[in-house]
Design brief:
56% of the residues lie in helices and 20% in strands. By secondary structure, it is an alpha+beta fold. A 4-stranded antiparallel beta sheet has the order 1-2-3-4, covered by helices on one side. Strands 5-7-8-6 form a 4-stranded mixed beta sheet, with helices on one face.
C-alpha cells in the first residue's frame, strides 16, 4: 500500500504540471483530452487518498509520516493553519491561549505590507481576467490560482493575528503566524533584553524571527532548544530574537515569570 501511494504521487503531480505548462504556453487542447486527463488525475488522487486512509488506520500517524515526506506534510500543514486562521480571525478568537496565559501580538507592523500585497494581487487578478477572457481554460486556471493566492495571503496575516506569543506559568510559546511555533521552558531563559534590530546575520546557535524585517527582544538561553525550520530542518539554538507589538510589556511580564520560576527552584533546593 505504501508503494502504491508513493507511486500515484509520482504519476499525478508530473501529469498536472505538464498539462498546466501546455495551457500556459497557449496550446489548444481538445476538450475531450482535457476532461479525460483531469478525470484520470482525479481518480488517481482519490485512490491515493483512500490509500493514505488505509495506511493511517493500520499504523496511525507514524505510518503516514513514513509515506509522506516531511516537507510535504509541513507545507500542507502550513496552508491548513493559515486558512483555518481566517475562521478564528472572523470569530475574534485566538489559538493556544488558555485561561491564565498572557498573549502578546506580533502582527501589527506587518499589516500594512501584507494589505499592500493583497491589493496588488487583486489588481493582478482583475488584469489577468481581462487579458485572458478569450482563453476560457487558461482564464479559469489563473483565476483559481490568483483568488487562492489572495485568500492565502489574508490567511497568513490572520495566522499572525490569531497565533500570538503566549506566556504561561512554565514556558514561553514563541510563534510567527503559521510558520513557526516553538516552546521555550522558562527555566532555560537566562536573560531577556530589549534590542530592536533591523539586520540579522545568520550565526550558529542564533534563531532570528523577524516581523517586517525587525526584532525587538533577545532571549539568551542556558541550554539549547531545538528550532524546527519551515521544511522540517532542525538545529539547536541558544539565542532567540523575536518581535512583539509591545516588547516592553512582554519583557516585563517575562521578567516577573522568570523571578517566580527561580524562586520555586530555590525553594526546591533548600
Amino acid at each position: 500500500m505504501t508503494r502504491l501511494v508513493r507511486g500515484l504521487a509520482w504519476v499525478v503531480v508530473p501529469v498536472e504540471v505538464v498539462l498546466f505548462v501546455c495551457l500556459l504556453t497557449g496550446d489548444v487542447l481538445p476538450v475531450r483530452v482535457l476532461v479525460g486527463v483531469e478525470a484520470v488525475a482525479l481518480a488517481l488522487l482519490l485512490i491515493e487518498c483512500a490509500g493514505l486512509l488505509i495506511v493511517y488506520r493500520r499504523g496511525g500517524r507514524a505510518a503516514v509520516r513514513d509515506v509522506v515526506p516531511e516537507p510535504v506534510r509541513r507545507i500542507v500543514g502550513h496552508e491548513v493553519r493559515a486558512l483555518s486562521s481566517l475562521v478564528l480571525w472572523v470569530a475574534r478568537r485566538r489559538h493556544g491561549v488558555r485561561e491564565g496565559d498572557l498573549a502578546f501580538g506580533h502582527a501589527r507592523d506587518q499589516a500594512a505590507m501584507l494589505y499592500g500585497f493583497v491589493f496588488v494581487s487583486v489588481v493582478e487578478t482583475i488584469g489577468l481576467a481581462l487579458l485572458l477572457r478569450n482563453m476560457p481554460t487558461l482564464h479559469a486556471i489563473t483565476l483559481v490560482i490568483d483568488v487562492y493566492g489572495v485568500i492565502l495571503m489574508l490567511g497568513i496575516h490572520a495566522a499572525s493575528v490569531t497565533r500570538p506569543h503566549v506566556l504561561s506559568a512554565d514556558s514561553l510559546r514563541v510563534r510567527h503566524g503559521a510558520h513557526r511555533d516553538m516552546s521555550i521552558p522558562l527555566e532555560r531563559i537566562a536573560a531577556v533584553r530589549g534590542e530592536r534590530l533591523f539586520t540579522h546575520e545568520a550565526a550558529d546557535g542564533v534563531l532570528n524571527i523577524p516581523v517586517a524585517a525587525q526584532t525587538s527582544l533577545t532571549l539568551e538561553l542556558t541550554e539549547p532548544v531545538m528550532a524546527v525550520g519551515f521544511l522540517g530542518g532542525r538545529r539547536p539554538v541558544t539565542t532567540v530574537r523575536l518581535h512583539s507589538d509591545e516588547p516592553a510589556e512582554l519583557r516585563a511580564a517575562l521578567g516577573r515569570a522568570l523571578e517566580r520560576t527561580r524562586g520555586r527552584a530555590q525553594e526546591l533546593t533548600q
